Amino acid sequence: MRAPLSWLREYVDLPAGETGRDVAAKLIAAGLEVETVERLGTGITGPLVVGQVLAIEELTGFKKPIRYCQVDVGDANGSGEPQNIVCGATNFAVGDKVVVILPGGVLPGDFRIGARKTYGRLSEGMICSAGELGMSDDHDGIIVLPPEHEVGTDAIELLELVDEVLDIAVTPDRGYCLSMRGIAREAATAYGLPLRDPALLDVPVPNEHGHPVKIEDRRGCDRFTARTVTGVRPDARSPIWLQRRLQKAGMRPISLAVDITNYVMLELGQPLHAYDRSRVNGAIGVRRARPGEKLTTLDGTKRELHPEDLVITDDSGPIGLAGVMGGADTEIADARETTGTSEIVIEAAHFDPVSIARTARRHKLSSEASRRFERGVDPQATSAAAQRTVDLLVLLAGGTAEAGVTEIVSPSGPHTIRMRADHPDRVAGVSYGRETVARRLQDVGCDVYGTDELTVTVPSWRPDLTDPNDLAEEVMRLEGYEALPSTLPRLPSGRGLTERQRLRRRVGRALAGAGYVEAPNYPFVGDAAFDRLGLEPDDPRRRTVRLVNPLSDEEPALRTTLLPGLLAALRRNDGRGSHDLALFETGLVFRPTGCETAALRLPVDRRPTDEELAALTAALPAQPRRAAVVLAGAREQAGWWGKGRPATWADAVEAARTVAREAGVELEVEADRHAPWHPGRCAALYAGAGGERTLVGHAGELHPRVIKAMQLPARACAMEIDLDLLERASSGAPQAPHVSAFPVATQDVALVVDASVPAAEVESALREGAGELLESLRLFDVFTGEQLGDGKKSLAYALRFRAPDRTLTAEEATAAREAAVAAAVARTGAVLRGA
To answer: What does each C-alpha distance from 681 to 32, 488, 651, 672, 790 come to in angstroms?
Structure first.
């Protein structure tokens, strides 16, 4: 809402020296969002005066019309002689009054005016358009003033070019501030000054002689006022002051009748509509649209109506979308195009905010009227708004107000709220006292009764005040948010992050420390993603939870795996030139079991019961939290230090081990076949040992068909692991290791095994045989060659032995090594290399 300061002063006697910035500071302190304060006319200096065109000479020989004009500017030029001015506009004639800036004047943009020779003639000034004066964006023609203005009059004051405009972002709960009346009320309260309420008008009582109105839907329209003005001069034009106020408020002047309805809407906040009575057939009605009905609105668009649309009708059918936009068939005719309109019916009504909001969104037709109705309009302002419109039509258009007044009102009482007098004190942590609370609520417009228990009657223009907390907020904002003490909340003892949350954070830090970049993705997926991953039709991951209102028809379901989003991010970054990638994500997946119950609609008027919450929980699918990584390109960069190496399936497996270590779990890795991984380079990840093992995830290189379908880099790798299963398998938070003060004994061993034997199985056997003295074991070399024979491989391990209480002897370390080798030979058929 744009609020000119000069207009605001009509309702509140602001101090004479107050600038727009001063007023903005007061309104901001009261809780309004003043975005900018625009200073109009700061770049204009005179002489800028009213002139009258005495003669026009059409110059020829140029590509566009050029006119050489003699303009009477009175004594403004010091001589009283006519000014000779070259002008390219053609929308004025001899005798018209125009706006002239004389040599020495300055227009916005530091455009200085001087006498200069152009088109072969001396031009002594310029005839101005609205765009050149900064009044609007209209550069089509110069300003033609009404004939009653005297030649030589100061046009800066006449056109109200110097002003300040407050641009206020009105939040949905402050719909009353979409009017000068509402902003003036806030300014009056902020300054502690009285308000001259423009809605306090003498309104005639309703009678049976007004234009007939029939309301079929009282829920959609609970109040309707109709007034009629006859004898309106069709050629009457909006006066300058009216046009300027509309322009400053951001609206374009159109015609007198329309301008008046827009002016009253800006002034009182009540949208209105004016009908040409000669085009209205019978009674005006309000009802829901019927199937198949259509309406051509004022913007020239033919719209198919929805049965939930609230429409204005006459005997011929719909003539307007209620609260949104009128119809073209009853539009006020322009006297420049037809004979004009001499009889006008004024509509001032109150419509259901939800209905108007849905209609505006359904037809993608947001208007000034719908913006106000959907935020809440004062229902008791309809009569005053209609009267104000009638008064202006009589004053400016020479019309006569008919005695008939139609007013239909659905019975309703004022909204009251019961509140303890100290409730704002308890909410704010400040002792306001009963007197301050009552005074501030009265400033808002409430009626307050009671002592310890207050009964507050909410004003009709504040539909957002519905409960005691709303009233407490009003007291707090008017007393000043800056007066509220800053106090830190007391944290209950024994509460903090859950183990699940701590694990998630540890995993994220560990993967980031290992060189992965977090890439969160939207949790939506479509069947096409599962096709590209090569999932079988009966794969459980294809069983999804589908959304009722998906953001995209291509992704209508919730994800069952993290890989589609991460792989899409990998493809997108690779396509933009980043080829060495390591991305990770932790998040929820949604795995329905088929045992979910129907969702229960919870009540809104009370707290749900434990049984209702349990029923709602039972309707939800399982939502395990997972971690996943994807890799492509180089895992280690080449440089002066040596060669780099590409990312392989082993890096994906190591990422899983990194995650598992944060949960205090040792993984067992086995070869597996599982989409979307390569059948020969896929690892199943198990937590636990023996018969208690749990499959927690998979890692490896992606299948070539998946890489081709998803346009991924060659040999891309991925890992996905279930954090909830890791947490269950964990014995608790990882414990810091005991550091022995005694030296380590290192023994190397190389074993030759069949190529089909997994290195993990050999490692497990070595650990089992080495016993408690083994501190760590590391595979440092894998060798194949003719020396070993076909189908054989050599695995070289470094074994570190250490005792916590003594220095190991060479015999003890050798004995432990030999025991480890013996266990490996027995379990895997290994042969000690070189033996």
So the answer is: 62, 54, 12, 8, 21
H-helix segments, 677-809: 704-709, 723-729, 759-770
Cis peptide, bond prior to residue 47, ω within 30 of zero:
yes
How far is 594 from 617, CA to CA, in rounded Å? 14
Instruction: Choose from 31-45, 126-140, 727-741 the range with maximum mean pLDDT.
Output: 31-45
- In one-letter notation, the amino acid at residue 676 is P
Residue 16 makes CB contacts below 8 A (sequence gap 6+) with none
Query: Hey, is 346 helix, strand or coil?
Result: strand
Query: What contacts 692, CB < 8 A, 6 or more positions away?
Result: none
246-270 pLDDT tens trace: 999 999 898 999 999 999 999 999 9
Q: What is the secondary structure of 589-647 as a DSSP string?
A: --B--S-PPPPPPPPSSSPPPHHHHHHHHHTSPB--EEEEEEEESEEE--BTTB--EE-
pLDDT tens per residue, range 546-594: 998 999 999 999 999 999 999 999 999 999 999 999 999 999 999 998 8
Q: Are 176 and 458 in contact (CB under 8 A)?
A: no
Write down the pLDDT at residue 835.
Answer: 66
Calpha distance 600→183 (Å, rounded): 44
Cα 629 from Cα 303, distance rounded (Å): 51
Please name the amino acid found at residue 245. R
Distance CA 655, CA 680 (A): 19
348-365 pLDDT tens trace: 999 999 999 999 999 999
Secondary structure (DSSP) of 533-575 = TT--TT-GGG--PBPSS-S-TTS-EE-S-SHHHHHHHHHHHHH
d(CA 147, CA 95): 9
DSSP 300: S
Are 748 and 777 in contact, with CB atoms under 8 Å apart? no
264, 365 Cβ separation under 8 angstroms: no
Using one digit for the tens of pLDDT, what is the confidence trace for 73-110? 988 888 888 999 999 888 899 999 999 999 989 998 88
Nearest to 803 by CA among 774, 768, 770, 765: 774
In b/e form, how buried is each residue of 371-405, taking b as 16+ CB within 10 angstroms? bbbbbbbbbbbbbbbbbbbbebbeebbebebbebb
Spatial CA neighbour of 670 closest among 636, 702, 698? 698
Omega of the bond prior to 646 within 30 degrees of 0, cis?
no
Residue 531: other Cβ atoms inside 10 A: 11
Mean pLDDT on 637-645? 89
Which residues are CB-contacts of 18 (< 8 A; sequence separation ≥ 6)? Answer: none
Query: How confident is the model over 514-527, as pLDDT tens digits?
Result: 999 999 999 999 99
The answer to whether 152 and 73 have CB atoms below 8 angstroms apart is yes
Q: What are the two backbone dihedrals, phi and then psi, of residue 489, each rounded to the nearest 5 degrees?
A: -70, 150
Q: Count, in order, helices (H) and strands (E) of the chain.
A: 21, 42
- Report the DSSP beta bridge partners of residue 97: 52, 145
Query: How far is 711 from 168, CA to CA, in rounded Å?
Result: 50
Give the three-class secondary structure for 790. Answer: coil
pTM comes to: 0.68
Q: What is the pLDDT of residues 9-19, one digit of tens each?
A: 999 999 998 99
Q: In the prediction, which pLDDT does 471 show?
A: 95
Distance CA 405, CA 154 (A): 43
For the cut 60, the answer to whether the pLDDT of residue 706 exceeds it is yes
